[in-house]
Amino acid sequence: MPARLTSFSKFLATLGAFGILGGCAASTPASSTATADSAATADSATAADTGGADAASGGDSAVKADASGGETAAAAPIEIAGAYSDNFGGNETIASDKWQFSFGTSTIVEYDNTKNNAYLQAPADDKFNPSKFSKIVWTEPKADGFYYCTVAMGAGTLDLAKASTLTADDKDPDKTGCGGFGWTKLSKKK
């Protein structure tokens, strides 16, 4: 990883560890459907939904539980699953149960394809945010990729990450709208 990227990643992680970085207060445009709460829909899944062999093997499908605890039809896999190159020179891989960044892998605890958001939990051995939660929002995916923004980082619980009112503005994601910075652009690997 280039020294410039490593330094930038450490800088962002440090800001997040101190609660300084978490998104911007701009309103969310209609084309960006991020909200602080996430209702369970056919296009959403939670950690409880992803039990079973497929989740354990890293598969992309999630099984939803009905009100009686039984299983219902499989939830839709996260719509942004795939292998990508980011605009910082790194690589990222996304599956319904994990998001692998250049600097480590977080567990996807919950996602919603309709609202274009996911809640992640950093691993217990994360240097800056051990076992902490974050909220990521993304633009509507295109064939060649999409943009994402981490709007909440370093939350002590999933409920705190969900309660975050921080939003992102995707009007000019190359330049601004994500905590005063441009969004991360992910391009599909060929």
Plain-language structure description:
By secondary structure, the chain is α+β, with helices and mostly antiparallel strands. It has one domain. 13% of the residues lie in helices and 32% in strands. It has 3 helices and 11 strands; from the N terminus they run αβαβββββββββαβ. The protein has helices at residues 3-17, 53-56, 158-163, and strands spanning 44-46, 62-65, 71-75, 82-86, 91-94, 98-101, 104-112, 117-121, 133-138, 145-155, 184-188. The strands form 2 sheets. Strands 4-5-6-7-8-9-10-11 form an 8-stranded antiparallel barrel. Strands 2-3 form a two-stranded antiparallel ribbon. Mean pLDDT is 74; it is low at 1-43 and 47-72.
Concise description?
By secondary structure, the chain is α+β, with helices and mostly antiparallel strands.
Q: How many separate structural domains? A: 1
| Strand residue content | 25-35%
**Helix/strand structural class:** alpha+beta
The residue fraction in helices comes out at 10-25%
Question: What is the overall pLDDT average?
Answer: 74
Number of helices: 3
Return the string of H and E elements.
HEHEEEEEEEEEHE
Overall strand count: 11
Query: What Rg do the Cα atoms give?
Result: 16 Å
Output the strand order for the largest sheet.
4-5-6-7-8-9-10-11
Main β-sheet, in a few words?
A: 8 strands, antiparallel, barrel
Shape: globular
Low-confidence stretches: 1-43, 47-72
Head-to-tail CA distance between termini: 21 Å
